[in-house]
From TrEMBL:
InterPro entries: DDP-like_NUDIX, NUDIX_hydrolase-like_dom_sf, NUDIX_hydrolase_CS, NUDIX_hydrolase_dom. Residues 1-101 form the Nudix hydrolase domain. It holds the Pfam family NUDIX. This is Nudix hydrolase domain-containing protein. PROSITE patterns: NUDIX, NUDIX_BOX. Transmembrane segments: none annotated. The lineage of its organism: Eukaryota, Viridiplantae, Streptophyta, Embryophyta, Tracheophyta. PANTHER family: DIPHOSPHOINOSITOL POLYPHOSPHATE PHOSPHOHYDROLASE (PTHR12629), NUDIX HYDROLASE 18, MITOCHONDRIAL-LIKE (PTHR12629:SF67). CDD domains: NUDIX_DIPP2_like_Nudt4. Its cofactor is Mg(2+). Keywords: Hydrolase, Magnesium, Metal-binding. SUPFAM superfamilies: Nudix (SSF55811).
Amino acid sequence: MMFPKGGWEIDESLEEAASRETFEEAGVVGEVEVQEYLGTWSFKSKSQGTFHEGHMFPLRVTEELDDWPEKTVRQRLWVKFSEAREVCWHPWMKEALDVFASKVSKRKEGTQIYHFKELSDESTVVCCS
């Protein structure tokens, strides 16, 4: 499994690209958590054989759609947060999950109000294949 990812169009911000790719690949709509930016990772494209940068953001899902552009070629899968790392194909995506878990953990310690504070092992993240 992998997280939604893809190209960044010249006329959109990174946040807009993240939102669009999540809609196209996983059929979910939500609010990109810009202030919780997880970081940048370099990865090699299987189809092109070239290196690309991946920018990862959490997305607060507000809507799950029945139909989306890549529904016929991708499967949406919700997994427990505690299982997400196990099913990720790419090491850099596992690292992004670790960064996110660390941010959530710090928020739980009371350093800042964080709307993912209810995140637990039973919470879910979206992946697609």
